[in-house]
Records
---
Amino acid sequence: MNTTKEKGFTLVEILAALTILGIVFVSFMTIFSQMNLFNTRTESKLETIHLAKKELNFWKENPMPLENNEKISVLKKDGVSSPGFIFYTYTRRDEPKYEYRVKYRVQSDLKPFTETSIILHRVQISIYQNGKEISETFGYVEDGAL
């Protein structure tokens, strides 16, 4: 009696397994590239949010932050186009080059609790790159700060 033991895989089974593995591998590679793109966008968004918060702190800590400041290259003050607001538009000399727009509300939008309370004015800071808004934040500064 002559019996042959055939152990192992056939060529068709090996090719089918390689094809399935290739399809799975390609689908995972597209997911990883999308995750990388998403992480890059998130990182740049977080950078600009941090920059906007930093600029807001700069405005809160300095009573007249734009006067005699050598770090600012272009400054335009507009208090005419929109009544009740003063707009400041400027860029900084250091990198990265963004355009900052500050919207200062002249009248306080908060009601004071007592007559001796501090009067606060809303300041909105927007950061633009190539004419497109990339980040925005707001805060309050004390009366007489600007």
---
Amino acid sequence: MQILQLKQAIVLSLAGLAIAHPGVHEPSSFTEVSKRAFLNNAHRSLSQCAGQLKRNGVLERAASRRAALFETYKKRSLGLRDTEQVVNTSHHSSLQVTPNTPESELFSKDPVCILAPEGEVGPFWVKGELIRHDVSDGEPGVPLFMDGQFIDINTCQPIQDLYWDVWNCNATGVYSGVQSSMNGNGNDSSNLDKTFLRGIQKTDSDGVAGFKTVFPGHYSGRATHVHVIAHVGAQVLANNTLTGGHIPHIGQLFFDQDLISQVEATYPYNTNTVSITENADDHVVQVETEDSNSDPFFEYALLGDSIADGVFGWITLGVNVTASHDTSATWAATLTSSGGVTNDDSSSGAEISICPDGGRVILFSTSLAAFSMVTPNYLLYTASKGAIEQMTRVLAKDLGQRKITVNTIAPGPIGTDAYFVGKTEQLV
């Protein structure tokens, strides 16, 4: 029997300079000073939560629920895996799992909280998605059952009637509900009407909601991830969609690299020829985890002897319900009764149409040098520079079909005068 890793850390989702999707960056107005103040207050708030949650029976009920869900979802014998630490720093427990391990030990350690003053929504959020538990829509791939519990960091109480909005790409790296050159076949307008791997669920009295989905695949420049938005104070319309309320939480959740490797070895994930970006190389992971004790990764267990049997993943998310990030939640499209409608104000479908075939696009960045010689700003400089280079590569790939080349030039101690040709496979 293998060891199941149970994290006991505070997770902080702070994607300030990271690039959320190829070629698109959702800016954050959350400054370094306000970030530090938030972290200090959050640490003090969370230090009181574990004991109160235990006294109120929240942890015990969470353990019983997750154990019951695990038994429901698993197909054969217990197959538990170690969860590797984010960017290879040890944080696992030495808990030995046996068939007789009490559920209280397996599923109810101190809560792992994600505190998101402002995360990355990415360019592919779709408004108007349906409230439903099963969002798989028949998509092929490894089944993924997600269990999330939301805790108010100010009161240490579960957040009831919060609406958990999730979306991720399919096994070959394509999102439903949007039409964009950055998302699969940019000419496929029928994708606007598709809803696979998108949905919303309301939390119960213990702040719990869950989904049946498909383990996400990958695309250029990003590690495997799931997008999250929390809605508070929203109301349900007659068509089973949301209206009103506000958004206190935007973030992204990740998976252990070893688990990703197992999934990517199976069909249809292994038909994707795009290079895999690992967690250690992902700009969002780097910014969320650098100097922040952050670990925004699912705990998980396999549901059978084979990865194809599915994965059960669980996580506890701490949210400041008084925060509001509505202005950061830009959407690419809206799902209506007549199908998907593109948001013309969104940047997700932006194209460079004025550049003639065979021409050249040059990207200049002059602000990065300000970070160049100061630590830890040097790390921000490096992450930002990497994001810009990745954007260049993606543009090169998108425009390479028109024989347009893309350059990026950024001053600073790490000189860049890159020349990427979209049709050159080794570069894209």
